[in-house]
Amino acid sequence: xxxxxxxxxTGQILExxxxxxxxxxxxxxxxxxxxxxxxxxxxxxxxVLVRTVAARLASVLAPYDPGAYDVTQILMPPGxxxxxxxxxxxxxxxxxxxFGARISMAVGFVSVGIAVVVGTLFGxxxxxxxxxx
Length: 133
What we know:
Layout: E1 4-6, E2 13-15, H1 30-37, H2 39-56, H3 58-61, H4 93-128
Antiparallel strand pairs: 1-2
Helix pairs in contact: 2-4
């Protein structure tokens, strides 16, 4: 096999003129395959997806205005008109839950963003000073 060489640890054969990075190539779709094999991850991902879609479509899915109250419907149990019932002042619980999910998601994203910025700053300072921070 003149003109060819085997890349150590990968089983690949390259022509002499092609430089190798020394690392095995990432397999295409490796993460997706591993994710689909883990049933718990798939179920968790489905729950997150459904909740995210429901929160984004809250104005379409919510049967009532989340702030509107009806004193004749105070503390009603779940039923055909109010799927999750009503609260102490007659507001629909399902509508409030769907709109509340939007706020919860916004708080979560902002919190993660702040954590990333602070963590990056600490990591940068620690790297500059050799990890003595």
